[in-house]
Design goal:
Length: 417
């Protein structure tokens, strides 16, 4: 348990999270979270917070959101038993198939939810930022669906690296704004999006992509993504006759993980978040924020971040762009501090190996991000024979083919064997 919390404090905070009492009125998950933003941004955040309070659990919003999840996103996504993987691991492995959701990952749950919210708040247009482009694509699709113009801010360097996603966003009707300032990657894109938001907080809605940032985003994104865990819980009971022993999810900012974990917090299920271990333990070699980071403020939230001794935020490395982030959502920081969720990491090589194994065993090309969860689950199975394992299969790996082609497949086909 973290030195940040006393034992009695930790159990009280855990109970409060389970009961839906967190974040508190100031947007805090115990010591974490809050809203650390410049004065100029305060009115925009306050307006959003009010809007979330008013609409998110309102019957009309929920009716529209649930209908879009069903008819446009394709929910509920399947829960799939993995018989060949189970046999090879000596476990019972179940996959929650977010790769089957529209646009190929869980990100669309959040994007469509916030796009509907934007419309209800009377926004004239939506802005979003993206690094690898996946959130940009989901935002562009969701905005097209609700009929709002969408501008996606993207670092010039990222635009070059992720050219197919830039094209995809444009085809989905979004404007992609090249950010030439700062590091010309995600951080600069966020700064630019925030600068734009300030100019017209009533007309613009800022659609954030993970359970990170200043209040109310970590709460809003968790609520929208919790559909994953709610469905999985019910499907496990119906299809497997009971709850799993353990659930795994990969953690970048933490939105698919909190969506899977939050509805399972009160259950007797071990919960394990898996970060990117990259190429090693050194600063800059990984994105294992919770495993190796320290408390600090990043993007308006007090959480665990990767920083050097002077508080300079560190660059990260991961083979998967979606996990390549130097912070993590504040609710995860709390769940780690209370001991309820364990956070470990899997390296680039382990992730690649797990991806190949899943492909060959079950015919599922999973995302490189997701592969980290598989790698960790596989190690767990070795130490816990017969365990019933649920894995959040956050997205599909088609987008990763350019990376994967650099690593020739080790798996041989049956015909060639
Ligand atoms: C973006 C992404 C992630 C990481 O984001 P979280 O907010 O941590 O969920 C994980 N898996 C896939 C497939 C993604 O596209």
């Amino acid at each position: 348990m973290s030195a940040l919390l006393q034992a009695d404090e930790a159990s009280a905070l855990l109970e409060a999270t389970i009961n839906g009492e967190l974040p508190d009125a100031s947007g805090r998950f115990g010591p974490f979270g809050g809203r650390y933003v410049p004065e100029t941004l305060v009115p925009a955040f306050e307006r959003l917070e009010q809007g979330v309070q008013e609409h998110l659990h309102d019957a009309a919003f929920q009716e529209e959101f649930q209908r879009e999840l069903r008819e446009w996103v394709g929910r509920p996504t399947a829960l799939t038993f993995a018989p060949r993987l189970s046999e090879s691991w000596g476990a019972k492995v179940w996959l929650k198939r977010e790769d089957l959701a529209h646009t190929g990952a869980h990100k669309i749950n959040n994007a469509i939810g916030q796009a509907i919210l934007a419309k209800r708040l009377g926004a004239q247009r939506v802005i979003a930022e993206t690094g690898a482009g996946q959130h940009g694509v989901a935002s562009a699709a969701a905005c097209a669906r609700v009929g709002l113009p969408c501008s996606v801010y993207m670092g010039a360097v990222d635009m070059e690296r992720q050219a197919p996603n830039v094209d995809r966003m444009r085809r989905l009707g979004a404007e992609v704004v090249a950010v030439e300032t700062g590091d010309q990657t995600l951080r600069a894109a966020i700064d630019e999006a925030l600068r734009t938001w300030v100019t017209d907080p009533e007309g613009i809605y800022y659609l954030l992509g993970s359970a990170v940032g200043a209040h109310p985003y970590p709460y809003l994104v968790r609520e929208l993504q919790s559909v994953i865990g709610k469905e999985a819980r019910q499907q496990m009971i119906e299809q497997s006759g009971g709850l799993p022993d353990v659930a795994f999810a990969c953690v970048g900012g933490g939105s698919n993980a909190i969506g899977l974990f939050h509805p399972l917090l009160a259950d007797d299920i071990e919960l394990i978040g898996v970060e990117a271990g990259g190429t090693g333990d050194g600063l800059g070699q990984n994105a294992a924020t919770l495993a190796t980071g320290t408390p600090g403020v990043l993007q308006g939230s007090y959480t665990i971040i990767l920083q050097d001794d002077d508080g300079q935020v560190q660059e990260t490395h991961s083979i998967s762009a979606g996990l390549d982030y130097s912070g993590v959502g504040p609710e995860h920081a709390l769940l780690q501090a209370t001991g309820r969720v364990k956070y470990i990491s899997a390296g680039d090589d382990e992730a690649l190996e797990a991806l190949e194994e899943l492909c060959a065993a079950e015919g599922i090309l999973t995302a490189l991000e997701t592969s980290h969860a598989f790698a960790a689950a596989r190690n767990y199975a070795k130490e816990n024979p017969g365990a019933k394992i649920l894995i959040g299969n956050s997205g599909r790996g088609d987008k990763d083919m350019p990376t994967l082609t650099k690593y020739p497949a080790r798996t041989r086909s049956h015909a060639g064997a």
